[in-house]
Specification:
3% strand, mainly alpha, 2 domains, elongated
Amino acid sequence: MGQLIYLKDVVTLALNEEKCAGCGTCELVCPHKVFRLNNGKVAIVDRDACMECVAEDLPAFMDNGMKATAEMRVKTFHARERVALIPVELVEALKAAVVIAPVLLFLSGLLGPASFWPNVLTHGLFAVQALITAIFAGAVLTPLLLPWLPGRAFSLKSLAPGLFCALLLLLLRWGDGVKAGSLLEMIAWVLIILSAAAYLGMNFTGASTYTSLSGVKKEMRWSLPFQIGGGVVGLVLWVCSMLVDHGV
């Protein structure tokens, strides 16, 4: 497998050839081999591989006697930076939703207590609303509120916005009381929303400035089974809720 490249032609890295001292420090510290020293001068050989880490600090690092200042050692991930990255995750999630939504509509039409189209308009549209709610909680609210959410793992951080959005959605739908089938449906969608939001929140580790590859792998090992299990149990309960309403 070749080197992984993120988005093409978006890197802002620039090389000031007049200030280049030919020391090779940039080639030495760059983890993605963006620079290459040749005949005492450095050239950018793979701009798209740049992760925009601290290359912009190299001139100041050199001018400071090759000593890092306190500012150079601080990792930032401000709200503006997080907001700029939300569309990247959101678009991918919405692509999946375009595929999943028709399946939910079809299943609700077949399994609901009434005829096909009334089922679609009640259970089906609510299922799509719940899917969008999970995406909003995991791909929008979690990045926005990231510094203030409890926990270190991103999948855990997403549980608070996921639970809030799920309870708000259920309150709007069943504010006047629930039946047995409705109770199962409520539990089902809480599990599904939390599982999907946790997965999307975990996905945002790839866009952050301070997560490590080994840390992400560790989080995936313990959180993915819960996300998959919660989603599967939620789907089973959702189907059962419609069968209960149907009198099966």
